[in-house]
């Protein structure tokens, strides 16, 4: 693994995030149907249904096109012997620096959506909290997990 430059996530994360967008839009549809039922049955004001419908329709291009691509383009990470850097955020950019000596636990996990695309999430746990690198290919995730394990061991020996 190259440690000098910021690394991108796997390109398949865009498709996984689009699928998440479809699921989100399905939830919006269920909420709109429930609002329609309440409007017809209980006489709720129609502006509530109209407002929710407009918001749902307006969110379609964001959920299915813009957000998955923006997140892929802006998410970066770098792993070196001394630290792990994570750069993320669309509107509010965050740059997280995790000293290698502070990493207590590294976990590779895979939910049903990531499993469909054979992607993994690496979770880095420290005393202050946990951080995730989401959307890594299986080989990359395993390599990162082993690198962090080796670097953290080196860090412990240096103390």
From TrEMBL:
Positions of the YdbS-like PH domain: 72-146
InterPro entries, sorted: YdbS-like_PH (IPR005182)
Pfam families: bPH_2
Keyword terms of this UniProt record: Membrane, Transmembrane, Transmembrane helix
Residue ranges crossing the lipid bilayer per the database entry: 21-42, 48-67
Protein name as it appears in the record: PH domain-containing protein
């Amino acid at each position: 693994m190259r440690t000098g430059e910021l690394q991108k996530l796997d390109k398949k994360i865009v498709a996984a995030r689009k699928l998440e967008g479809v699921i989100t839009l399905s939830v919006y549809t269920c909420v709109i149907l429930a609002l329609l039922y309440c409007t017809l049955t209980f006489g709720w004001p129609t502006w509530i249904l109209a407002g929710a419908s407009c918001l749902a329709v307006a969110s379609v291009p964001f959920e299915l096109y813009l957000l998955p691509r923006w997140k892929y383009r802006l998410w970066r990470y770098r792993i070196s012997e001394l630290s792990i850097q994570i750069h993320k955020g669309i509107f509010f950019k965050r740059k997280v620096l995790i000293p290698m000596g502070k990493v207590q636990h590294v976990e590779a996990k895979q939910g049903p959506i990531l499993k469909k695309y054979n992607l993994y999430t690496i979770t880095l746990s420290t005393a202050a909290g946990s951080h995730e690198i989401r959307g890594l290919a299986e080989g990359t995730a395993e390599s990162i997990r082993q690198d962090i394990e080796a670097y953290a061991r080196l860090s412990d020996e240096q103390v």
